[in-house]
Amino acid sequence: MAMAENPISTAIRSIDRPVLFAAAFIVVILIVGTAYTLITQGNAALLSPTYLLLQLKVSAFLGIVAAGAMLVILLGHIDLSVPWTIAASAMLATAWGGAGAIPVGLLVGLGVGVFNGLGVAFLRIPSMIFTLGVNVVLRGFMVMLTGGFSPSSEPTDLMLLLAKGDVLGIPIPVIIWAVVGIAVSFMLRRTPLGRYMYAIGNREGAVYLSGINTRLVLVAAFAMCSMLAALAGLLIAGYSSKAFQAMGDPYLLPSIAAVVIGGTNILGGSGKLSGTVMGTILIVLLQSVLSVMQMPEAGRQIIYGIVIIAMLLAYGRGSRLRL
Amino acid sequence: MIENLRLRAAQNLGPLLAFGLFVLLYCFYSVLHPKGFTVDLFVQNSNETLTLVLLGMAQTLPVLLAGIDLSVGPLMTLVDSIASEVVHGSPAEIVFGILLCVFCGLVGGAINGIIVVYGRLQPIVVTLATGAVFSGIALFIRPTPGGEVDGDLSWVATNALSELPATYGWWGGNPPAWFNAISGIPMPIVLLVAVVVFIWLPFKNSETGRAVYAVGSNEAAAYMSGVRVNRAKLAAYTLGGVFAGLAGLYFAVQTGSGNADPIQAGTYTLNSIAAVVIGGTSMLGGSGGAIATIFGVFVLRSITFCFRVVDSDSAIGFLANPLLQPMFEGIILLLAVCIGAARVFRVKNRLNLFQ
Predict the structure, then answer these.
(1) pLDDT at A13 (0 to 100)
(2) B128 and A253 in contact by Cβ < 8 A?
(3) Which of A273, B2, B83, B166 is most exposed, with the fewest beta carbons within 10 Å of its own?
């Protein structure tokens, strides 16, 4: 007689491998870090709710950027204009000030995204090149605007509240990240747009022949990506109480790393948001625990690189060329 | 014969365009510059260009395979840091130091190649990760900028060829006539020609070099034709590492010190990609080459040079405003890559666009 299916093993099987690996690795990081603090300081500071909530809050900024990056990567493209989209939206928003600050910041993101989308979808320039060029232009544009005189870089009260406040003990950035995550996940799984995205990532020509305007889907994905980067920019400006030029630089490569560690194929066509969320937490926690362990910057970089390759070798390998 | 020439021109439209643009921009610059068309200016400009040229050549090889290498900048800074530790002392130590630097570049490139080929991971992700590792090792070796590079070597490598016998006392300070004829050539140009003639051209014309182009055009077809796909990929990444190592070595020799700044590494990586594209090498792989990239870098640098000489009172004087220059550089870069969009309007079957 066949054994009744064990509900726990069914649940585990429904989670895909990247999420499982990432979760396991997060636990390993916490165990190693806690062992370190137990030996050196005699406490388990890494397991305190305060520390974990703080890490979640820091993850929220990267997580929002990574959610956007994932949309573009699902299509088989990439957005390298993220750093200056973050900086430009935050700087223009703080310069605008008042109630209009946040809408202005998001509109900057929308504008950049639509422009990226037009270049990639209509001119068919490889996204890596086009968005790289847009990044340089944005940087030049901001140097032009802020070089001669310095507009206000103070975030508005609302931006400060969104970045630093909390509701019932949960930081607001985490709540925003959760809302973004649920919305993106819903869009990917339950709406035609989301299904088109996966399909285009697999074979755009086939989607085009099915009568779908693939170019509009590309523009929409780039627009969403840049708007999420702009949203993150507004939150980061609030969190660090200042909008500044290099603020977006530390988010580009970690966001791509978070997406691929989460199991999204860099060539497009497959991947889940849950993986990206786990990848984000893994990267933030790894960096944080290593700095708690007083690992110098050099060592953190090396471990970070090795972890990415090791995780991908465990589950992200391509198929052998066979004909 | 004419037919052959026409075919060659059609195949090399991108590089020819880059070459034309470079000649135009550089002539514009030289005419306006008070010291235009003098040895001093050639020396100065070629010094500012050679590092990025070598790095662009490093980037070209993975791009020919339809891949990309985000670790060229970090690998360059790693070798730069190593060079600032080993390239000084007795002549034997200097030679050993130089060989060690090139070897480190080779190992870095080979690691990328091995992970890409045997790990079967995507090059963009692999090099993103190895780039972080290279940056980390560079920071270990050189936590703060500094170090030392042999002064004579720096002087010779960054001046006209005439300084080579003068510094090392060849021919007793009395060089032969044939040498005087070429003594005005800047040393960076001599080095570049040597790299092209002794490394790039033999590689490109070898069986492995042809295999790299074949794999970049169509990997499956190359495999079916008996091309050794893995060997071609390994060779391309390894040679890319060698070029990145040479770039780091020259950077150290030129600046006389080492600097492991990760932000500088990132900027160099992005510029190397831009140079490859402006040179006319296809991001889809299989066409272009290192010589095309050399002209891509020349165009990039000439744009920067031109901004220096624009008279601020003339009709285009707004170009001389330093606050506007970064934006114009960006716009020109964007326009240059948009030239590649011309095929959208030529293509007969829209399905061919989706690749």
Answers:
(1) 63
(2) yes
(3) B2
Strand partners, A47: none
Q: What is the per-residue burial (b if ≥16 Cβ within 10 Å, else e) of A173-203?
A: bbbbbeebbeebbebbeeeeebebbbbbbbe
C-alpha angle B344-B123-A285 in degrees, rounded to nearest 5: 115
The DSSP call for residue B184 is T
**Quick one: how far is CA B76 from the chain centroid?**
11
Domain range holding B96?
40-258
Residues A105-115, mean pLDDT to the nearest whole number: 95
List the alpha helices (DSSP H) in chain B: 2-11, 13-32, 39-64, 72-86, 91-119, 123-141, 151-157, 163-168, 177-182, 187-195, 201-205, 207-217, 219-224, 229-255, 262-279, 290-309, 325-338, 342-346
Structural domain contains residue B35:
no
Yes or no, beta carbons of B344 and A133 under 8 Å apart: no
Mean pLDDT (chain A) is 88
- B residues 225-244 lying closer than 8 A (beta carbon) to A: 229
Radius of gyration for chain B, computed over Cα atoms and rounded to the nearest angstrom: 21
Q: Which of B68, B66, B67, B124 is nearest to B285 (CA)?
A: B66
pLDDT above 80 for B326: no
ipTM of this predicted structure? 0.84
Q: Contact A226/A72 with Cβ under 8 angstroms?
A: no
Euclidean distance between CA atoms A120 and B282, whole angstroms: 15
Are residues A160 and A241 in contact, defined by beta-carbon separation less than 8 angstroms?
yes
Rounded Cα distance, A242 and A235, in Å: 10
pLDDT of residue A5: 61
Encoded tokens for A19: 């999420």
Tell me if B153 is assigned to some domain.
yes
Nearest to B142 by CA among B57, B4, B289, B259: B259
Alpha helices for A148-171 (secondary structure H): 157-164
Q: Select the residue of B129, B328, B340 nearest A125 (Cβ to Cβ).
A: B340
Joined tokens for residue B171: 């021919």
B31: in domain = no
Q: Is residue B151 part of a domain?
A: yes
**What is the count of structural domains for chain B?**
1
Structure-token match 């406490």, residue found: A43
Residues 93-132 of A with CB under 8 A from B: 119, 122-126, 128-130, 132
| Structural domains in chain A, sorted by start | 21-31+48-314 (1.10.3470)
Q: Is A164 in the B-facing interface, judged by CB distances under 8 Å?
A: no
**What residue type is assigned to position B287 of the chain?**
S
Interval B140-169: pLDDT, tens: 999 888 888 888 888 888 888 888 888 887
